[in-house]
Amino acid sequence: MNVLILGLGNLLLSDEGVGVHAVTALGERFRMPDGVEILDGGTSGMDLLDSIAKRDHLIVCDAIRSDARPGSVQRIDGDSIAAFFATRISPHQLGLSEVLANLELLGERPGRVTIIGVVPEDLRLGTELSAAGREGMEKSIEFILDDLAAMGVQLASAPLAATGTG
Amino acid sequence: MTRITIDPITRIEGHLRIDCEVDGGKVTNAWSSGQMWRGIETILQGRDARDAWIYTQRICGVCTTVHAIVSVRAVENALELEVPLNAQYIRNMIIAAHGVHDHIVHFYQLAALDWVDIVSALGADPVATAKLASSLSDYTRNDVFEFQAVQQKLATFVESGQLGVFASGYWGHPAMKLPPEVNLLAATHYMQALEFQRTANRIVSILGSKTPHIQNLAVGGVSNAINLESQSTLTLERLFAIKADIDKLIEFVNQAMLSDVAAVGALYADWTGYGAGVMNYLSVPDMPLDTKGVICELPGGYIPGGDLTAFRPINGQLDDYFRDGVKEAVKHSWYAYHGGEGARHPWDGQTNPQYTDFEDDGKYSWIKAPTFYDERAQVGPLANVLAMYLAGHEPTKRQLEKVLGIAGSVHGSPIPLAALHSTIGRIAARAVRCAVLLETLQNQWQLLMDNLARGDFDTYNRPSFPKGEIRGYGVHEAPRGVLSHWAVIENGKIRNYQAVVPSTWNAGPRADDDALGPYEASLIGNPVADPELPLEVLRTVHSFDPCIACAIHMVDPEARPIVQVKAL
At what angle do helices B85-104 and B180-208 cross, to 10 degrees? Predict the structure, then answer.
């Protein structure tokens, strides 16, 4: 098993950074077993190519643009992934979709890709999440735990000293 | 007259809008507009100056490293704090490896698709391609089997109807002119470039402890503990792994990338006649070799009006000539200066948003317009390579002459240095700089090893902040050109912070005198065969390697369909 849990987003734009906040909190609360790795990808694009290459499963947590209620969370996978990238215009244009397309060319695209998308409330300058952003972060962590459980991965809590509030 | 709006420009980082008026098949007027607001300065106010770099490296996903490095330099400058030699060498290696990664990605993954027709590569003869390749260089991976394999892979891709990463290309456009064999050669190296940019990035991650966000910086040095035997630190084994990676990169860049750029450039020689734009070139020295940043391995300087005889060097990273020349204007930007509308020095800079509609003759961009002694300046690899050449930097001279030599033999007649003032020239200069950076990387690696052999293991000088106000600035010749951060610090806390970034210099709108910015000026006179498919405009804009995320930064709050080109 070779899983990457990737948080994407800009920590300087409030809820835009929710994906990074979520994976950071996940790493603080739980110990990852061998074969499951957490990465704060920020707003990077091609820099992530090596980290994403050849994974069995890539789980991406990111803010998404949607008409749904702020703080709600959507799981996008299977055939919906291609449609998601076709309509999304990301602030980081040379982003995940280019990285995945290039990996496809190399024959190193992850076997499975899941996006856990959080609908942001506030995208203004700021390093804190909004109330809806915090709610979305907690929900997205549950979604990720569900995905891991479906793969048969049960996480042990991290030692107390490493527990953060996110 | 037709007006074209391209919004957003793709295959760049960030959100950029370009408007052109086209008359008689040529661009007659142009506007460059950043469509996101940046306000990093606001976030930094009141924070501990030692932490500023942790925030600045979040400005942009491509340039994390460069904003981190220049931020610690700005604070060190304010403190007059020296940096141990080992820390300089380690930082320099990170800077060089990052630059190599960035330049490889730009040429193959971003710019090449404006010139190389991937679909045409399917019709190439792999044997003829190998013969052509061997006339350009001795690169060992230019063999028939490699070309056949790539051709087959591309065929599968195209047949499946899923062009994937190549979907944004203008295949079959009348401005695409390369023979099928050159297209196949470049497509093959496109695939290999994906492998080598990872190699370059690995060097950054070994030295920086992590990518995409390096962790090893500190105001006063680096936090890498050096113990040649202990596994948890920078060891001999890791240093030799880096050396092996440098050697692999040198082979690819010298044997494949330089000759590809030269050949493509020569076959599009007409494009050396377009795209010059603003010919005041500005670059800064980098790769400090002492603890103060006074002596640098790579030179920089200012060339006014494209006149190479008027070159004025900038001496080290603390030259007042640079410090005192920089201002930013907002007459055509969506900001207001309180207390005088004229251009301001970054230490006195302000970031007060004042949004209007897109006004052709008024405000139309979230990017400010920087000036150097009240003149617009073009920054980037072309400015840097010209300065290094004029300063007599031997590796630059050798690599530049090599590229011009190959281009001349493909073209069938010599290519003069003046051809560099162009769209193609910017691309060629970036490849030259990439090769130069690799030599620097090799040199800095050796300097570090030699210094360690002398028994010097220092990597950090502890900063201490005085009471009251201090000011500092840091410069860095980043992959897209001159980057400077300007900090005003009071009792150890940030009071004002301004980042004047390369894409601000180049992508900025008109300044106080209403003269066009470098992107805008470079587009005037560009041919446009088909206003609905303005490939030629993209060629010139992409030649600057736009990275707008730090020039400005905010998600466009309006949900709207992807409109890429609108011709009215």
Answer: 150
